[in-house]
Amino acid sequence: MIRIKKLMALLSVVGLGVVLSACATGAKMEPAKNGYNKQKVVYHLNDIDSAFGALRNAKNHLNALGDENVELIVVTHSKGAFTLVDGSKDAKGRDMNDMVNKLSNRGVKFQICANTIRGKKIDKTKINLNAEVVPSGVAQIAHLEQMGYNYIKP
Predict the structure, then answer these.
(1) pLDDT score, position 9
(2) Strands 70-76 and 109-113, sheet pairing
(3) Could you tell me the residue ranges of all domains in the chain?
(4) Contact criterion met (CB below 8 Å) for 54 and 151
């Protein structure tokens, strides 16, 4: 019985440490505006037909927090990579190049998967100049999450 009480006390202390650690992390958050804190987010884009809405979401995200209060990275792969390829259009005939350029000017970073470039035989000269090539789109998303970026899949 004494061992059980000691074990319960130990678990309580460990649990309290986890809670305090979480609170301490929250206390370090810097305020942005409109009641939000500064944020780091990764938008996952794997279909050009959802790109227009995703990029509009990114613009609204920036508008809500202020450009200086959010680190926003859009990672593209599969059919979503074509969002960053000049001349590509979604099913409604929309070209995303202008939106990508405007968001890039506001500090949004765009990344495109090298596996997709190879697999879909994308002409590298047609990739938007604002795009950074990363080895693997999905691995990059996981990496960014490990670095504290919040995942958003529009």
Answers:
(1) 47
(2) parallel
(3) 1-29, 31-152
(4) no
Looking at residue 4, its pLDDT comes to 53
Q: What is the CATH number of domain 31-152?
A: 3.40.1260.10
Q: Name the token pair of 145.
A: 């999450």
pLDDT tens for 64-93 read 999 999 999 999 999 999 999 999 999 999
Q: Which residues contact 140 (CB under 8 A, 6 or more apart)?
A: 75, 111, 113, 134
Phi, psi of 5 (to 5 degrees): -65, -40
Q: Is the confidence at residue 102, as pLDDT, over 80?
A: yes
State the distance between the two ends of the chain, measured CA to CA, in whole angstroms.
53
